[in-house]
Design a protein that fits this description.
Layout: H1 2-20, E1 24-31, H2 54-59, E2 69-78, H3 85-100, E3 105-109, H4 115-123, E4 132-135, H5 148-160, E5 170-173, E6 176-179, E7 184-185, E8 194-195, E9 203-206, E10 209-212, E11 237-241, H6 250-257, E12 262-267, H7 275-286, E13 290-295, H8 306-311, E14 314-315, H9 321-331, H10 338-347
Parallel strand pairs: 1-2, 1-3, 3-4, 4-5, 11-12, 12-13, 13-14
Antiparallel strand pairs: 5-6, 6-9, 7-8, 9-10
The structure holds succinic acid.
């Protein structure tokens, strides 16, 4: 009888544990409008980004405690236009450390201006299938109808969901789920500021429930060979924007002379470059510069002629210039060979 009672007790305890088991989610805060504030509830511009701390962000959305066991960590508190390699490396290393130490998922609060670059950087450097979700806001925390709290709730709901595993790094904004590779900021002020022009959104979050409608095709996270564990800096890569009469090549030469190892050209159309600019780039490529051709057009892939490929021009495929820059930086940690770098652009 005693044995039977013990068994029933053990069974009920295990059942209770199973029901109560909530994922452990770390919220890493980096700043942005979600942590922004101004002394007027009506103002949605002119505020200071990155002033509210991680504990206040967590406290503002008590409902996330029902979804997960939450911990907070302040990685930085900046306007994301000031994002830099040091913070990227710190984030990647810390997320890999947290995953190795039992954290189930990570949510990163981030400014929206460069969120797509950080998301893609982490998509190429995190060594785990566990969910990583970036979230921000278009209105500061002080505004009436601030979008940050709902976005944060959605990000935690997404990170806590079983469906979020092995999807690569994602962005949760305005009820949408977007992939790190596909996401682009497409509006400067509207709360519906993010979409994936080439790919479509991954899915939606509705009342805390997660719905996926799209699949990730490209290789990501633990299957990507870039390893930042021992890195303290990244190769210098810059972007050159193409426009009419863009013929002098002065900027390209100056960048190269000042230590730039790679240039991404935001070409016109499907990646065309003014012939005079192109001639300068060809000269610099002979001296060791790697050049990736992307496009200033929002959607579609670039088309590079075979002759240009033979000269060493690398196609960014459908990556926009700012994301092509991220991949070129990481590619240059492994090789300078344009053919090998082209393979990375086809895969990731
Ligand atoms: C920023 O990117 O830090 C400011 C703008 C924003 O978060 O929307």
């Amino acid at each position: 009888m005693r044995k039977l009672l013990l068994c029933i007790f053990a069974f009920l305890s295990i059942g209770a544990c199973m029901v109560q088991a909530k994922p452990k989610i770390a919220i890493l805060a980096t700043g942005g409008t979600i942590a922004g504030s101004i002394d007027s509830a009506l103002a949605t511009t002119g505020y200071q980004a990155g002033v509210v701390g991680v504990e206040a962000l967590i406290k503002a959305v008590p409902q996330i405690q029902d979804l997960a066991n939450i911990t907070g960590e302040q990685i930085a508190n900046i306007d994301s236009s000031n994002m830099n390699d040091e913070i990227w490396l710190k984030l990647a290393k810390e997320i890999n450390r947290l995953f190795a130490n039992g954290i189930d998922a990570v949510v990163i609060t981030h400014g929206t201006d460069t969120m797509e670059e950080t998301a893609y950087f982490l998509n190429l450097t995190i060594k785990s299938d566990k969910p990583v979700v970036l979230v921000g806001a278009m209105r500061p925390s002080s505004a009436i109808s601030a979008d940050g709290p709902k976005n944060l709730y959605n990000a935690v709901a997404l990170a806590a969901s079983k469906e979020a595993k092995a999807k690569g790094v994602m962005v949760a904004m305005n009820d949408k789920i977007l992939s790190a590779r596909g996401v682009v900021k497409t509006h400067s002020l509207n709360v519906d500021a993010f979409s994936s022009p080439d790919f479509g959104d991954l899915g939606y979050i509705v009342d805390g429930k997660v719905f996926f409608y799209n699949k990730i095709i490209k290789t990501h996270t633990k299957n990507v060979p870039f390893d930042v564990t021992k890195l303290t800096n990244l190769p210098k890569v810059d972007i050159l924007y193409t426009y009419s009469n863009d013929g002098s090549g002065i900027a390209a030469k100056a960048l190269f002379e000042n230590g730039t190892k790679g240039i991404v050209v935001a070409g016109s159309g499907a990646g065309s470059i003014h012939q005079d600019q192109k001639n300068v780039l060809k000269e610099l490529m002979q001296k060791g510069l790697d050049v990736v051709v992307s496009s200033r057009v929002m959607a579609g892939r670039v088309a590079i002629s075979e002759a240009d490929q033979k000269l060493g021009f690398i196609s960014a495929e459908d990556l926009n210039p700012q994301k092509a820059r991220v991949l070129l930086m990481l590619a240059l940690t492994k090789t300078k060979d344009p053919k090998k770098i082209q393979e990375y652009f086809l895969k990731y």
